[in-house]
Amino acid sequence: MVSRENKRAAVHEKLQLLRSITNSHALSETSIIVDASKYIEELKHKVERLNEDIAIATNSSHQNSWPVQITVKTLEKGFLVNLYSEKSCPGLLVYILEAFEEIGLNVLEARVSCADSFQLEAVGGENEENIGEIIDAKVVQQAVSKAIKNWTESNEED
């Protein structure tokens, strides 16, 4: 009899522990187990989402083996483009200038460093020939991102 009571007490204690871990407010044993089952399913879904996020982050880091930070700010007349990479990027400047030209952005002022890292700070203004077309910061950001992608792809071929 004592062992039966000890077993019941142990089961009750474990159910209470399970109830607290799963944040269940249930009182009956069955409801506690059902809540625990739902909690485990939620955890499984979280793990799946995290694994997907990790896979996406891993794939994007493989595609772009050195991260480039790009910021584009709208100025009164034009844009301020800042670009930074920890690694040197020979030839990237040409791709970026070609991208500016494609969208009709004139470089009014620029500072570039290509020694151990790549840094570009450029002030661009809209080309007067493109008066009807609207260029916003998002268009400039996309053009620079595309130039970086094209540069990366051309360097992978080498």
Short description:
This protein is an alpha+beta fold and 158 residues long.
Topology:
Layout: H1 2-21, H2 29-63, E1 68-75, E2 78-85, H3 92-103, E3 105-113, E4 118-126, H4 137-157
Antiparallel strand pairs: 1-2, 2-4, 3-4
Keywords:
single chain; 158 residues; alpha+beta; Alpha-Beta Plaits; 2 domains; four-stranded antiparallel β-sheet; 4 helices; 22% strand
- CATH superfamily caption of the largest domain: ACT domain
Q: Trace the largest sheet across and list its strands.
A: 1-2-4-3
**Rg for CA atoms:** 29 Å
Percent of residues in helices: 55-70%
Give the topology string: H per helix, E per strand.
HHEEHEEH
**Mean pLDDT metric:** 84
The CATH topology name of the largest domain reads Alpha-Beta Plaits
- Global outline: rod-shaped
> How many discrete structural domains?
2
Structural class: alpha+beta
Beta percentage is 15-25%
Give the biggest beta sheet. Answer: 4 strands, antiparallel
Number of helices: 4
